[in-house]
Amino acid sequence: MLKTLLELLRKDDLLDQAIEETNLMFQKAQQIYQEAISVLKENRQPEFEIYKVDQEINSLEKKIRRKILENISFNPRKDIAASLVLTSIIIDIERIGDYSKNIFELTQLKLENKKLNIDEKLVKDADLILEKFTRIGKVMTSGDKEEAKLLIEELNPIKKCFDEFIIQSVRQCQNAGCDMIVSVLFSRYLKRVSGHLSNIVSSITNPFDKIGFYHKNYKEEID
């Protein structure tokens, strides 16, 4: 036990390491998302192993959790708030990776030799979300609260439009084919991705107890 304690004390600041690995985790989630929507739009095979990158995200989450726990254990009065916020962020990043993987798996629903026809509005919304990834990555590093607030304002209406699309699609589902089913699921997954992105940004604008809250007395439900 003493040997373990000494090794931990010799390490660089564990929380700083965890923050760097959180940024790497977010970059990998963006990588999966970008490739998943490209594969779906272009009807092609992925350029890298999506499941492998998803596993890398999961491994990073475990490493970060261990470092956060070690940091709190040996510095119980230091960085508690930052540790809690970081824990919240990595959960959202992991979920983004999972939903992005689900988007990729939609390609498996298509009929053989048949290209999926995805609703054009969904494709535009997916590209819009991708643009938010880059800005959120920068905000995670800079901590710019004004930019974070702007991102939340931009993401909220995007999430709501997916609910409207799903409701309209269900009304038409009596004669729905594969394309309609894929579009509904795609919309659902995009809503989840944008919701978790909002949670990440809210960790910059809000205190810990209000992370994920976007309006007074209202909380967006996220799996």
Q: What is the arithmetic mean of pLDDT?
A: 80
Q: Got a strand count?
A: 2
Would you tell me the structural class of the helices and strands? mainly alpha
- CATH C-level name: Mainly Alpha
| Count of runs of 4 or more consecutive helical residues | 7
Distance between the termini: 38 Å
Q: How are helices and strands ordered from N to C?
A: HHHHHHHEE
* Domain count: 1
**Radius of gyration, CA atoms, in whole angstroms:** 19 Å
Q: What summary fits the major beta sheet?
A: 2 strands, antiparallel
Classify the helix fraction into a percent range: over 70%
Instruction: Indicate the CATH topology.
Output: Methane Monooxygenase Hydroxylase, Chain G, domain 1
Question: Strand order within the widest sheet?
Answer: 1-2
**Weakly predicted, low-confidence segments:** 1-10, 216-223
Strand content: under 5%
Overall 3D shape: globular
